[in-house]
Design goal:
Layout lengths: L5 H12 L6 H15 L9 E7 L6 E3 L4 E9 L2 E2 L1 E3 L24 E8 L13 E7 L8 E8 L6 E4 L2 E4 L1 E4 L5 E2 L4 E11 L6 E7 L4 E9 L8 E5 L23 H7 L3 E8 L16 H15 L3 H23 L19 E3 L4 E3 L2
Parallel strand pairs: 5-6
Antiparallel strand pairs: 1-17, 2-16, 3-4, 3-17, 6-16, 7-12, 7-14, 8-11, 8-13, 9-10, 14-15, 18-19
Helix pairs in contact: 1-2, 1-4, 2-4, 4-5
């Protein structure tokens, strides 16, 4: 297992394609191959990661980083929780997005909310209308362009002339002093962004037209992001337990010690996530897939498909899949104790070995 960077792949891929290492087709093929390998149902080695954030108790929703495809598992204040799909909230009472507080700190629900194009959005009122301000963080990106698609204060989608044609959205030119949208933006009005590749990050702010100042940052786009999209999840428990300065005495779980209770007020959320394909552009950019041979096989399969040699392409792509599967088996090994996940962490199946307690449980 290793972590590949783009420069380590160039020579081998260029030899296979019969082109120079600096040919732009090399990077394109590497990106295409990685995306296809990461779209398989299995989790390739290197495609999962654990990280922790601290969230505000006044907000139930968390926007995950660009690299995240989906959440595999999570912990709120050290307590493991369940991951639910977007359809969970369509269930009738008592389940379905009600944020039931169970034992521990803050309930155990994490509910998928689809995708968004920014980590926050505009909050506007009649007395304090807002626009969006786009700011380049470095003069090197001045003059590049970004297109925002949004709903204006009258509830209409904005259409403007772009490249001589009337299109959905408004195109703004980047500058370090900031560029404002021509129209006020409705609350939660920003819904799509198209950005040029830049050298440095680009920031978006909600701008108060009444006060004439930035009131909140709503996005920070990395240089290589061209169509930003992020996974959004709801954690109802954040405003139940972790949002209180103290717990009512009759609601504090007996098993919750003081030090854990204090830890909970920091509202830490730990995620175990599946990573998605993020295009590599610079030589030092890391790939998610660390198996060079699998990448080469997938690129070979793609070239065969371009020549309409479908049967041969499928055979080569199966070899690439087998290479990934073999790497997973070698990485996991045969020494790990398999864990059976159930809907309720307090339920055990009949005659199942408990790897934590080291004993048999019967129910």
């Amino acid at each position: 297992m290793r972590k590949l960077i783009l420069s380590e792949c160039r020579k081998d891929v260029a030899e296979q394609l019969g082109v120079c290492e600096t040919d732009e087709v090399v990077v394109r093929r590497i990106n295409q191959a990685q995306e296809r390998l990461l779209n398989r149902a299995v989790d390739p080695v290197g495609s999962w990661q654990r990280f922790e954030i601290c969230s505000s108790a006044s907000r139930m929703c968390v926007v995950l980083p660009r690299q995240v495809r989906h959440v595999k598992a999570w912990w709120l204040c050290g307590q493991p929780g369940k991951v639910f799909s977007e359809w969970y909230e369509a269930l009738g009472y008592w389940q379905g997005g009600v944020g039931m507080v169970e034992s521990g700190c803050g309930g155990d629900q994490l509910i998928d909310q689809g995708t968004v194009c920014s980590f926050d959005n505009v909050v506007s009122t009649d007395s304090d209308p807002r626009r969006i301000q786009v700011v380049a963080t470095n003069p090197a990106d001045a003059g590049k362009q970004i297109t925002l698609r949004y709903i204006d204060a009258y509830g209409n989608r904005v259409y403007t002339e772009i490249d001589g044609v009337v299109q959905e959205g408004e195109r703004l030119t980047l500058s370090t002093t900031g560029t404002l949208t021509a129209s006020n933006v409705a609350t939660n009005g920003l819904y799509h962004v198209v950005k040029a590749i830049t050298n440095y990050p680009v920031r978006l702010y909600a701008y108060s037209t009444t006060l004439g100042v930035q009131v909140a940052q709503i996005a920070l786009y990395e240089p290589s992001e061209t169509v930003p999209i992020y996974r959004l999840v709801k954690v109802p428990g954040l405003v139940d337990w972790c949002g209180r300065s103290s717990h009512p005495a009759d609601e504090v779980p007996a098993q919750l010690p003081t030090e854990v209770d204090e830890y909970c007020h920091r509202r830490p959320i730990t995620f175990a996530v599946r990573l998605q394909h993020v295009p590599v552009l610079m030589d030092n950019d890391p790939l998610v897939i660390g198996n060079l041979y699998a990448l080469l096989l997938m690129i070979r399969g793609q070239e065969l498909r371009r020549r309409n040699e479908i049967a041969q392409a499928q055979a080569v792509e199966m070899q690439a899949a087998a290479e990934i599967d073999g790497e997973i088996a070698a990485y996991l090994g045969d020494g790990m104790a398999p864990i059976i996940r159930t809907p309720d962490r307090d339920i055990w199946g009949g005659c199942v070995f408990n790897p934590v307690g080291g004993m048999w449980r019967w129910h």
